[in-house]
Amino acid sequence: MRSLVEAEAATPFELSGEGPFRLVLWRRRTDAVLLALTHHIATDAASQWLLWRDLLDAYRAYAGGGEPEWAPLAVPYDHFVESERALLDSSRGQRQAEFWREQCEGSGPAELLTDRPRPATSSFTGASLVRRLPDELAERLKRAAAEQEISQFALALGSLQALVNRWSGQTDFLIACPASVRRSAAKEVIGYFVNPVLIRAVLDRRTPIGEVTAAANERLRQATARATYPYPLVARAAAADGPLYRISMTMVTTDAFGTELGGAVAGVPIDVAGVTTTYLEIPHLEGQCDIAIEVTRDVHGLTLALRYDTALFEKATAESLFGQFIRIMTAAGDTPEVPLSRLPLTDAAEKRSLLAMGGGAGVAS
Questions:
Q1: Residue range 251-269, pLDDT digits in tens
Q2: pLDDT value, residue 353
Q3: Each residue of 16-26: pLDDT tens digit?
Q4: What share of the chain is helix, strand, coil (3-state, %, to 5)?
Q5: What's the 3-state SS for 19-63?
Q6: Which among 68, 176, 186, 308 could disulfide-bond with 248, CB atoms 3.0 to 4.6 Å apart, if both were Cys?
Q7: Among 322, 307, 315, which Cα is nearest to 126's?
Q8: Mean pLDDT of the chain
Q9: DSSP 3-state assignment of 228?
């Protein structure tokens, strides 16, 4: 079944014919598998959950002999397109363009040392690692972010910035954060309401990790206030020779669509008109960046996904990166006063292995 799903997911869309949406249903003797495929040109993460919510509502209604009671949309997707065009023609749009030009000037993309040379052309192939944080740790990070008066996402982003600094030595770099530009009038509309915003980090290894996450929180605030300016125009204004980012981070929350779907994300089976239904996520968007971290916050806690370009990184390297990111994020929550240079990158087992390689297995540390 996994091979069938992966083969279907790898089949390109014929946008001029079938459009950006495809449903495939496999019937088996004792159950069935429904695969929903959507092209990113027409959907974002919130749209995916709107789609599943409406599909489940429709199934329940038809199973009961009725019709789904969907309210009319307040605005069509065309309304968003028109508002974006109006922004570009306004003085506000010009001010946003200047902000992004200044944000990028003199900086460049965050980069990590890779296992293999970068190919001339990306194949956009990758893999994913997914880890659900222990509930106690997720709650601790949530509490720490509140105490430091920053968002949970800023805590995670600052930790990623610290990881880049420790791995590469870069002190001035850009990381992209896909930001939602969906407004309340369009909360029920399926469409692409996402714009990557570039978050600049200017770091010093003597800086406490708490100051790094606080700075990330402020830069996120400034960037999301100007997220409506289209990213392709940001790249054009920056006149960069290459891409402005190679690493991205995003956060998805499912609580807006109720406890049922929020629980489904965490793997809790739900009842749909007498049918026990379990949500399974198929790895996606792999290889679009060198490294992409996605944080999903559901009603039960936090799940992290690290997607990496397999042309650049071995799985062991990605696993090491993932573990170090979680350790730094934990330290950022528990000990914000620790400087970047003193953040822990290895666990006890890795430290023993390194000491043994250097002939220092018996050295206390």
A1: 887 666 667 777 777 778 9
A2: 76
A3: 988 999 999 99
A4: 40, 20, 40
A5: CCEEEEEEECCCCEEEEEEECCCCCCHHHHHHHHHHHHHHHHHHH
A6: 176
A7: 307
A8: 90
A9: coil
At 110-135, the pLDDT tens digits run 999 999 999 988 878 899 999 999 99
Let me know the angle formed at the C-alpha of 40 by 36 and 46, rounded to the nearest 5 degrees.
70
For strands 247-253 and 291-297, give the pairing.
parallel
Give me 164's structure tokens.
């880049």
- Please give the C-alpha separations between residue 265 and each of 130, 135, 136, 221, in angstroms, as whole numbers: 13, 15, 19, 28
Give the tens place of pLDDT for each residue, 278-298: 988 777 777 889 999 999 887
Structure tokens at 97: 């363009």
Of 22, 51, 77, 67, give the one whose Cα is nearest residue 257.
51
336 DSSP 8-state letter: T
What are the domain boundaries of the chain?
75-350
Four-point Cα dihedral 112, 198, 186, 283, nearest 10:
-10
How large is the angle between the packed helices 152-168 and 315-334, nearest 10 degrees? 120
Q: Is residue 70 over pLDDT 70?
A: yes
- Which residue, chain included where needed, has tokens 């891409």? 243
Q: Give me the sign of the Cα torsion angle 89, 90, 91, 97.
A: negative
CATH number belonging to the domain at 75-350, selected among 3.40.640.10, 3.30.559.30, 1.10.1790.10, 3.40.50.1580: 3.30.559.30
Average pLDDT of the residues in 200-211: 96
Question: Is it the case that residue 365 has pLDDT exceeding 60?
Answer: no
Token pair belonging to 179: 């930001």
